[in-house]
Structures are given as structure tokens and as C-alpha cells.
Amino acid sequence: MSALSKRKVMTLGIQHLLAMYAGAIAVPLIVGGALNLNETQMAYLVAADLFTCGLATILQVMGTRFFGSGLPVILGCTFTAVGPIITIASTSNLATAYGAIILSGLFVVLAAPLYGKMLKFFPTIVTGSVVTIIGLSLIPVAMNNAAGGQGSPDFGAPRNLLLALITLVVILAVSRFAKGFVKAISVLVGLVVGTVVGYFMDMVHFGAVSDAAVVSVAKPFYFGAPEFAITAVITMIIVNIVSMVESTGVYFAVGRATEQKVEQKQIVNGLRSEGLAIMLGGVFNAFPYTAFSQNVGLITLTKVKTRDVIFAAGGFMVLLGLLPKLAALTTVIPSAVLGGAMIVMFGSVAVSGISILSEVDLRKDNNLLIVAASVAVGLGSATVPAMFDQLPDFAKMLLQNGIVSGSITAIALNLLLSKKAQASADAERPQAA
């Protein structure tokens, strides 16, 4: 893959960008809307988020001595932070929310080495269950988009389902019959064809492009100097602990997709990088960042594993953050088209987890019970999060995230039910480089 030309690297980078774009801009749109920000502030929030996403991704992929996993991982804003940021900003102000984000990022940087020592609790049966949960918990997101986007007035309309089906069929056909580079960009081909078909179905509109500013530069402390409140800081620390567990699962999934063993040092450095990215998000008044699982499925599907492609994707995000009009152009892709592409990408993540579990003998040491319970709990939490609504806020934050609840269940049951759990954990513990 190192022989890829610059043009191919750029094209593959755009494919990764489009795969995660909807998730990247959803958080600023939701938070900005809930806080009644004006159009200028909303535009800044989206631009700053994309700019910081790009910087965070580049930092993650570089892999220096202390920062960056060196894995082809894309960072995006975590949905876990949406509720807490809205709550903190509503009860105090945005400056307090950003102060909490900065200090919580510092916590992640400092806590990463200690967290790395806990990786002995992630043997194959746990990582396989977690990666499977990641894929399965994302599938409802894909189906909601395929139907037109949750809450849209035409949700489930036949034209949405048809457009999602066309996109999916194009991706599958290109993956099956094309060769070489064209096969590697099957998702991008599907997105382009789906958008063109959507245009002729009057589902593509360019109003947002004409309204967007030409240039925007992220400014430190756009919403004011950071303020600090202990409750807000603790809340954001809990959010980022959740993200650390989620990111660990993504690192293992990427390791599987790229056919390499993920070492303890890579995870520690990756989490340090995320902590630095979170602090950067606080400074530029963006958001906390975590490893995005959307792109794992793309790596699994295309078999393109080079970090250069993710560097390119990060560079494009920085560019879009500086050029909002160009960023708005990517928003014309209909939700149904994105949903059709997500079906195969997220399904690929789930299959990757099942592949990991195929290395586990499910007839021994209650392994079947461990996998069954953890996957059921994780998927249940992700699809029915309201079941935890009556619990305290910190418990809701943990348990409503299917990846976290499934991981906790898998770790606990592995320790309690497997007779050889400790021996297995010691044998598979990632070694520091």
C-alpha cells in the first residue's frame, strides 16, 4: 500500500472523510441547536469542530514517542459528551463547559499509563465481544439513515429506501466485480452514484452551500475565557473515561482490520493523543474527541491499511474547517445514501468481531455464556438506552453506552466464569514496546 500514488491516497482520504462526516457534524448541530446559538455561532462551531477533528486525527496517526497510536484511526467528537455539555452550558455557561473539557483532557493524558496496565482484562474473548458490539450497536444508526434520518418528515418513505438500496447494490457490485483501486473506493463510488440518483429524485439541495461563508479560522476561546467548576470537571472526566473504554475497543478492531497486534504502548500513546485532542477541543471551543468506529468498517471492507490515507483525511478535515463553503458541499449527500453505505461498513465491523471470537473455543470455560451475555447487554443498552433513565446521571452515562456496558459485562464475566481467565489474560496481555 506504500506504493499508492498521491492521487489515490487523496481519493481514499476523501472516502474516509465522507464515511465519518455525518457523525462529525451531528454533535455541533445538536449542541448548538439545544443551546439556541445564532447562525454565526453555529457556523463557527461546525468549522471549529472539523478543524480540530483534522488536527486530532493527524496527531493520532503520527505515532511519536509519547503521543499517537500510529494506527490508521480517525478521531471525531464523542456523542457521549452531548448531554453533559448541554446540561453544563444551560445551568452555567459554555465557558464552564469548555473549562471542564480542557481539564478532563489533561486527566486522560495523565491517566493513560495507568489505564494501560488494565489491558490484561482484555483477552481475546473480551475484545471479540467488544468489537462485535461496536458493529451491532451501529447498525440501527445505519438503518435510521437509510430510512431518511431519524426524525425526518419523510422517514421510511419508499424513495429513501430505494435510494439506500441503490447505494448498497452499487457498493456490493463494485466490491464484487471491480479490481484494484476502483474496488478500494467502492464506498465512494456508491456515495457518488447514490447522490447523483438522489439529485434526479429531487433529494439533493445546494442551499447550504450558497449560504456558507468562504473562509473561517478557528479562534482560541471563541466563547470566552474558560471557567472552572468542580462538578462540571468531574462530569466531563466520567465522559472521557467512557470514551477511553470505547476507543480501546476501536484500537483492537483496527488492529484486527490491519492484521497487526495492538501493543500496550500504542494504546497508551493513543489515549494520550486523545487527551491532548480533547484539550485542543476545549481551547478552540469544539468538543471532546474519541476514536471513530465508522472508519474501521471501511478499512475492513477496502483492505487499504496505509496511514497515509488517514493523514489525507485529517488534512481534508482541517481544510474543510477553514473553508465552510467547501464543507457545506459534503452535506448535500442524502441521509438515505449514507445509510446504504453504512449498512455494509458497520456490518463489516460486526463480522470482524465474530472473526475474533472464532479463535475462542465457545465449548470451554463458560465462554459461550460470557459472549452471549456481554453482546446482549451491549446491544440492549445501545438500542434501548431509556431503560437506564431513572438511574443517577453518572450511571446513565456509563450504562447507556452499549460499548461500555458490554465491555464491563465481558470483563466481569470473564473473571468470574472462566476458570482460566487469569492465565489467558496474562498470556495475551499486550507488551509495551
UniProtKB/TrEMBL annotation:
Keyword match Cell membrane: yes
Membrane-crossing residue ranges in chain numbering: 12-35, 41-59, 66-89, 95-114, 121-143, 155-174, 181-201, 221-242, 309-327, 333-356, 368-388, 394-417
Annotated localization: Cell membrane
InterPro entries the record matches: NCS2, UacT-like, Xan_ur_permease
Record membrane topology: Multi-pass membrane protein
Keywords: Cell membrane, Membrane, Transmembrane, Transmembrane helix, Transport
UniProt family annotation: Belongs to the nucleobase:cation symporter-2 (NCS2) (TC 2.A.40) family.
Family annotation (NCBIfam families): ncs2 (TIGR00801), NCS2_1 (NF037981), pbuX (TIGR03173)
Protein name: Nucleobase:cation symporter-2 family protein
Species assigned in the record: Paenibacillus xanthanilyticus
